[in-house]
Design brief:
Layout: H1 30-71
Length: 80
């Protein structure tokens, strides 16, 4: 008469394995494996991500200071 909900049709040469959500632990290994893994991945990527941001900040800082210097009359520091 038809398939019931959750029972897929059989397809040849394709095998599906699954574990019931009721048999899984939702936060298994979060503290013991998750945090050390996150720290390892952070340390592995920090030297690829941070240098472009540091260079961009230094260029931006230099540009704003140079722009402010060029806007002054005569190019010297103002006297108060």
């Amino acid at each position: 008469m038809g398939r019931h909900f959750g029972h897929l049709t059989t397809v040849r040469n394709i095998i599906y394995y699954s574990l019931s959500p009721f048999e899984q632990k939702a936060f298994a290994g979060v503290i013991s494996h998750g945090i050390p893994n996150m720290w390892r991945r952070f340390c592995g990527q920090v030297f690829r991500v941070v240098p472009p941001f540091v260079v961009a900040y230094l260029v931006y800082d230099w540009g704003t200071k140079d722009h402010a210097r060029r806007q002054r009359k005569g190019g010297i520091a103002p006297e108060h």
